[in-house]
Every structure is written in C-alpha cells, then in structure tokens.
Amino acid sequence: MKMKPYILFFILTIFALSNLGLTVPHKIKNEELSPISKETSVESQLSLNDSYCVAEVIKIISDIEEELPSGNKQRSQDLLLKILNGKDKGKTRVTSNVIPDNPGFSIIGQVGKKYLVNKTENLETGNEDYYLIDYHRENLIWLLAFSFLAVLIIVGGMKGIRTVISLACTISLIAFVLIPSIEKGINPLLGAVVVSCLSTAITMILVAGFNIKSLASTLGT
Fold first, then answer.
1. In what order do the strands lie in the sheet with 73-83?
2. Tens digits of per-residue pLDDT, 175-185?
3. Are 74 and 90 in contact (CB under 8 A)?
4. Burial class (CB in 10 A: 0-12, 13-18, 19+), 96
5. What is the pTM of this model?
6. In Å, what is the CA distance from 94 to each residue of 58, 62, 121?
7. I need a surface site. Which of 89, 162, 198, 218 has the fewest CB within 10 A?
8. Do the beta carbons of residue 221 and residue 200 sit within 8 Å?
C-alpha cells in the first residue's frame, strides 16, 4: 500500500519541527537569582538610561591620528553636536568620537552632516555621554523605498499593487505578531515558522490568486 504524497509531507514536516526543538524557553524567575545578581541587575537598570537622537556636527574641536602599539592607526575627534530632536532638541553637546582603522566601523564626524547618536545618562551623577553610532540616512531610505514602490507599480500594474499590499502584510506580521510574541516568551523559531507560513500564503494568493498553483508555491516555499 503506497502512502499518499500529502500524508508523507505532513509526517516529514512534523518530524522536522519536532527535531528543531520547538519548546517554550524556561523563564528565570526573580526568586532563582542570587541576592548579589538581583542587586547588581537592579542597580545597573536604575543608574543608567540609554536613549537615541539625531544630531548635527557644527564644529570639529580636535582631530588627532595616532599609531597604536599593535601598528594600527586610530583617529579620535572631539565634536560639538547640535541635538535635532527629543527632549534636548536645540541644545549643544560635546562628544569624543574614536575612529578605528577598520573602514567598516569608521564613522567620521564632518561639519554639517547628521548622525544617529546614543545618549547614555547616569541617573545618579547626572553625567551624560554621547556617541556617534551611525550616519543618519532616513531621508535617503525613504527616497529609495518610494522609488522602489513606484517602479514596482509602474512595471507590474495590478500585480505590482498586490505585491505592495503583500509587502505591507509581511511587515505588519513581523511588527505586530512576531516581535510581540517573542517578547512574551514564545519560542522565536516557532514564531518565525508560523509568520513565514502566513506571509507566504498571503503573498502567493494576492499575486497569483487563490488556486492550486498558489497552494503548490506556498507549500514549496
């Protein structure tokens, strides 16, 4: 007696998922932590506060390059920043910016350019430290996104519009289903599998219609 293909597919899927260990992770309760660990954790959470903002470099106070004992070169800058958003909007702050020799991690401060800045505030002493963590690319990203959507609609017509809707559905599933479920303790792998299945099914149905071809494409994906 031959086993039907869909039954074999179902059995193999269950076997694969069971071997991936789709279990809800064990949460560590506060009672399980030692008194020292709890005290250190609470103190670290209460004393430091991290936030992010956008700032513009309005002046380069100093710019020094030195050679390290390892032979690599390291460049350091003291920059005067103007905060452009958040509760410190309009204020000026001084930051030290270390530029490593590796170009992949180099963020060079330049007058007139905007940067994403990390602000670390010590709530006990009131001291504030600012660090450049990336270039501010929001405007370029929006321009690229809208250009992509426009070309997709112009070239694809109605299929392009349905593809845009499917992309919006996928982003919504990730933002409002996957991430909140992980925060609540659901196994990340299980959440990703479920969201991927839903996203794939929605995309295939919107683009190709509700038919056997969409079903085959969804199962194949």
1. 92-99, 73-83, 48-67, 114-122, 128-135
2. 999 999 999 99
3. no
4. middle
5. 0.58
6. 10, 11, 14
7. 89
8. yes
